[in-house]
Each structure stands twice: as C-alpha cells, then as structure tokens.
Amino acid sequence: MLYPQRLGQFTKEHTDTVAALLCGLLLFLGWFALHLGWLGLAFLLLPAAYVIGGYDSAREGLTTLFKEKELDVDLLMIVAAIGAASLGLWRREYHLIIDGAILILIFAISGALEGYAMQRTERSIRSLMSLTPDTARVLLQGREEEIPISQLKVGDEIVVKPGELIPTDGIILSGYSTLNQAAITGESLPVEKTVGAEVFAGTLNGYGALQIKVHKPAQSSLIQRVIRLVEQAQTEAPPSQEFIDRFEKGYAKIIVVAGILLATLPPFIWGWDWETTIYRALTFLVVASPCALMAAIMPTLLSGIANGARQGILFKNGAQLEKIGKVRAIAFDKTGTLTTGQLQVFQVVSVSEYTQNNVLKAAASVESSSEHPIGKAIVQAARDLNWVGAIQVQAIPGQGIVGIAQEQQIIVGNAVFVQQYVTNLPEELREIAQSWEQEGKTVVWVAREVEVMGLIAIADQVRSQAAATITRLKKLGVEQIVMLTGDNQETAHSVAKAVGIDQVYAQLLPEDKLDVIRRLQQQYQTVAMVGDGINDAPALAQASVGIAMGISGSDVALETADIVLMADRLEKIAVAIHLGRRSQLIVKQNIVVALGFILLLLVGNFLGNINLPIGVIGHEGSTVLVTLSGLRLLK
To answer: Is the torsion defined by CA of 237, 239, 244, 245 positive or negative?
Structure first.
C-alpha cells in the first residue's frame, strides 16, 4: 500500500515535471502513430499532449490576460501551437500538429525547472525553524515543566542544561557556562556567559546549567528576526527579473498584434486571397515564436551548471550563473569561510629549561579532563606525545584548570589565574602573549608547581587557499572585497591581514551584515556574499549571489545560498566567476543568432518566399543551432 502513497506524494510535489514527462511521452506516441498511418490513435494522443503539457501555460496566460490585461509569452506559445495544429488539420499536413506539440513541450519543461527554483524559500524557512527546540523547561512554583515555545511569556524563568540549545532569547539569572554562538553571531570561540549576560535562541549551551529569564516575546528573538529577514530578502524580485518580465510581455504584444494585422489587412491592401493570408499569418506565429530566443539562454546556463558541478560548484539556478559573472563586490564571512572554524594550537613557546613538547604534554595532562573547546584543541595537538592524564583536576570557569600529574601540580589558564600559583611571569613571555592577543589569538599559560613552563597560542586556522583566492579575485577585476564577522576587532583584522582583505566589519549581528550588503549593492549593484552559518542567512539571501560552504555550512546557509562550494574550496569562486562571464558572452551571441533567424524568417514569410514547413524547419533549426552553441560551456 506504500507504493500508491509514494507515487501520489511524488506526483503532488513534482506536478510540473510529471506533466512535462507525460506530454513528451504522448507526443512521441502520437508521432509514432502518425508515422504508421494510425490517424485515429494519433488524434487521441496528440490533443492529450497539448492539454497536459499546455494547461499551466494556458491558465497563466489567460489569467494574465483577464486579470492584468497583459499578454505574455505563455499565451503566445499556446496560440502559436494551436495555430500550427489548426493549419495542419486544415491542409491535412499532420506533421504541423507535432510541431505545435513540440512548442508546448519546450514550455512545459521550462515551467518544471522554474518550479524547482521557487521551492527554495520554503525549504530555507523550514531549516531555520528547526534550529530552536519546540519546548522549553519552565520553572513553575519550584518545579520544572516543559511547555511549547509559543506559550512562553516575558518574565518566565527557564532552565537550560549542559549541551542543550537555548530555546529563546533571555537574561541569565544564575549559572555559568560557555555558549557556542558561531551559528548566530559568527564568533569563532565559545563565549563565557554568567549572571546578567544575554543569551540568544539557537545557540548551544556548554558544560554549565543555566537559569534564564525571558525578557522579550519568543517571536522577537534574534533567530526569529533572522527568519523574517531571509523571507523578506528572498521575495524581493531583482531588477533583472523585472526587466525579463517586461520584455516577454512587450514581445508577446508585438507578435500578437502583428499576427492579427497580418491575418486581416493583406486582402484589402495587397489583394491577397484569404487562404494565403491565413496561411502566412499562422506561419508568422510559428516563426515568430521565441523558442530560439528562449533556447539561447537555458541550454547555455544548464551547460554552465553541469560544468560547475563537475568542479564542485553547485549553482542552484541558471540566473545565478549569469549574475556571478557580473559581480563587482564580494563580502566574505570569517569563521568557517576564510577560516576552518576549528580551534587549533597555533604556536607553543617554552622557557629555556623546557621544550615545546614538555609544555604541550603538561597542558594536555590536565585539559584531557576538560570539555572546553580550548582544552580539546590542546589535547588534539598533543595526541602523538606520550603523556599521562592528571588526577584531582579542578576547573575554574573562565580562568583555568589545575591538576596533579606525575606528583606535580600543573596549572593551565590565563595570566591572572596562573599568577596566583607562580612566583613571577617572565617578561619576555608577557611581551609574546601581548603580541599574540593583539593578533586575535587566545593565550594559554602553562606552569608546573611555582614555575612557568611556557605559552600556547590558540586560534582559528585560516584556510590555506584563502589568500590566493583573494589575490585571484582582485586580478579578475572585482572592485571591492570585504570581510563581515561577529568576532572581535583584533581577531577580524588579524585574519583580514593574513588573506589580503583591507575592508573589515567586525562585531556584527545578522541584521548588521544585511545592512552592509545593502550598502554595497547601492554602490556596486551586483554583490556576492560568501558564508557558512545561520547568522549569514539574511545576507546570503539579500546578496545578488549568495555562496555557501558545502561541508562546513549550516543547513539554512546551504538552502538560502544560490551557489554552494561542495568541497569548501574557496578558489572555486574565481572559477564560478569565469564560468559566469563565459555564459554571458555565449548568451549574447545566441540572442543575436536567434533574433537574426527570426528576422530572416519573418521577411521571407512576408515576401512569400517560404512556406510553413520551411518556416518550421528554420524555426526549429535556429533553436537547435543556439542549443548546440550553448553546449560549448560543457567544455
């Protein structure tokens, strides 16, 4: 019983695709029946192909005609197809019915592709909604009770246990923990939070239990604002789409009006007989149909998409392939985009009587008992060294950790914490620590008993190809490259300097990134945004082209973006721009060829030098020619 249900579900979700497939199948069977001389069967199959394949176009065309008083290409194609079929029946040239069905099939396939592109907004919103839990644990008269998020009120007190997502924005009443806010603010390091600090919905709690007071309605939380921003940005039609819509309506008007005039005036002006007049008017509708013009664009873009897919670049729709070639400014997120998003030991410095390995082993012995991300980075760096886990380990949140290893006390933490246990902090190490901190790195001091052993610098690693990518983009003529991040100024400028970016915007919330993108668009028009986190989603949606990292990217970033770098290889951005520029050039060439053929056929039809079969051959031939031209992008 599951198979009919699955079939019904597939049909419901892919109605346009099923209609195009059925239209193509009925067209083939109808052509085959005509070829065998089975006219009765052909006259059953071909009208069904017309109805199934052309229903949506006819409905949209008639709706536009009656409600908006406008003509569009959908209605023009239906009129041309029916005209070809009527002429085929009249003159008993039944192959013309096949030509009309082909016109309808082309539009049915185009409609199916457009339908898939329009589903992105709904999927991205669903992904955003899944970032917060459905319920919250509320304190009611000293007891914990789970209630739906929608029922939370300002003033409610909620409990969040270690490892849980924060359900809504609030203020910490009691408790201490580190929160991973990378998904919301883009901060590369977990942030320590204690009483009085604000927490955001969708962020991940660390090792401490928190009691939080709801200080704003759940629908006003930061994550809900992100959802609304994504929704708004994706529903705003870009100027290029508006131009295409106006062009289609204008083209349809001209062709329909010209067809009516051609079907009525020649007998009175040039003395043509009515049969010749109607014949040439219908030929006009066929040769003037914009199939070659439409084929000038879609095969080119699909070929570019296929080419990109082979190189790990996923274009979600053809329009973005064109837009990426026009990009004049690019904004990069920092954490997870220009950097790997994973904390690593950047450098180790030891005092003279110790080695760097001594420092790492001592730190790892106590940090192996810690769940803190910095501790995990230290343990990972010392994984190949021979060390023994410490005992009697005690962590002091926000300061450091102490323990006993090989009967000696090991102290690991910040300078203030370590200074409580040692006689003094060496001046040369103080200078090194200060230098590292100015570069945006986190400094960990390591001591044994009363002596400092050395320093460990922790940092988010810059991607190896980031600097080369920025250089390549500048050579391609990208006028402005900026970095947007929720991280602090020191870390942001350190990464920007390493990769060669001059303009930096730091300590940004999602709506701040959105504002920067809008300002860039006012100055440079076509702007790309490269990001990976939930906090990047509004900016990705607002940007002319949103580019997401495929491996490290969050679900919502992947759904919102127009282009996905499947292997997180930044250098592929330059490849995408090159593909976009090639596609623009080929599309322009194809449009010239398509319009040239249409003009030639129209002149030939008016002068009476072509009949309908020749007109159809010229029409279909030009379509095939520009289609083959578009396939050049496959190379």
So the answer is: positive
Tell me the backbone φ, ψ of residue 134, rounded to 5 degrees: -80, -25
Burial category of 407 from C-beta neighbours within 10 Å (exposed 0-12, middle 13-18, buried 19 and up): exposed
Which neighbouring-strand residues pair with 205? 179
Catalytic one of 99, 169, 333, 568: 333
Whole-number Å distance between alpha carbons of 562 and 133? 27
Closest to 73 (Cα-Cα) out of 264, 293, 241? 293
More confident residue, 112 or 509: 509
pLDDT, one tens digit per residue, over 543-553 is: 999 998 876 65
DSSP string, 405-464: ETTEEEEEE-HHHHHTTSS---HHHHHHHHHHHHTTPEEEEEEETTEEEEEEEEEEEEPT
Q: Does the annotation count 333 as an active-site position?
A: yes
pTM flag (> 0.90): no
Nearest C-alpha neighbor of 30 from the set 99, 84, 83: 99
Q: Where are the beta strands (DSSP E) in 260-397?
A: 313-315, 329-333, 339-350, 391-396
d(CA 287, CA 603): 10
Query: What number of residues does the chain have?
Result: 635
As a whole number of angstroms, the distance between CA 151 and CA 163 comes to 23
- Measure the N-to-C terminal CA separation of the chain; round to a whole number of Å: 46
Q: How confident is the model at residue 241 (pLDDT cuts 50, 70, 90)?
A: very low
When pLDDT is averaged across residues 236-259 and rounded to a whole number, the result is 65
